[in-house]
Amino acid sequence: MESLRDEEGFDEKMRSVTPTDTEEVSESLLVEEDADWAHRDDKPRQRYGLWWTIALLLTIVLSGLPGMFVGYRSRDLDEVSPVLSHVPVKYHTQRFNGSLLKENVFRREAGPEVDAAWEALGVNYRPIRVPAHEAARSGIAHDQVQIREAYGGGYPANVEGLHHLHCLNLLRQSLYYNYEYYHTQGKGAFRNDDFIVKKHVSHCLDIIRQQLMCTIDTGVLGQVWLYPDHPSPFVDFNTEHRCKNFEDVRIWAERNQLPEKTPGDFLRPPRVGDRVFDAVP
């Protein structure tokens, strides 16, 4: 099965990519509420007070519905992941290592030890299987790639947080002082020619940008003093954060990867009416 992690043979597919100008059109729906107060009867004035009260309450309720819907959808998007059916979210406090000069293994120059550390994070895990009954609420369309029922059915899918780490790892490999090392090896993403590598790297860069903006950290970075003889301020990057149980998610994703080798007919071909793109989006 050709998984999302399989970089080989990507060149020809990507060659069909052509620049497309897109526009985001935002439409505003204007709702006019007409009230005909011209025809008044002679009923007691307090009835108008009652209608005003009802109208005010309806206005408050209706104006709050969009926000309630958006809030519900936001929570819904966080809670629908099939991963959470098996790995409940737990939180813990963790202090980030924000050192500028003291490098840990993830920051060192390219080498076997560094690669092993990143691999251990799950950056190249194969897809998991999302059961058919969980697909729609997980954001997977009915006409996306499916596994044949003979092999258990469901949809192949990657844990998105691990894809973010995969992308971060590719950016690390593409740093000017690491690039030659990986380019010479010609493995993984670097099996492809430079045109595809460039597109892959820029894709990963923008995925991480969007993720960071979507989950903007509203914490603040204070400053500390350096050099007793000549005090100078410096940003304190070693801040505490409320973190999810990453390791539990990683272990689950590792244990639930689809097989490395699958039969040639493992995936069900698209049916009539299913979306089939002409080129890589």
TrEMBL record:
GO terms for biological process: mycotoxin biosynthetic process. It comes from the Eukaryota. The chain crosses the membrane at residues 50-72. Residues 1-15 have a biased composition (Basic and acidic residues). Pfam families: UstYa. Keywords: Membrane, Transmembrane, Transmembrane helix. Belongs to the ustYa family. This is Tat pathway signal sequence.
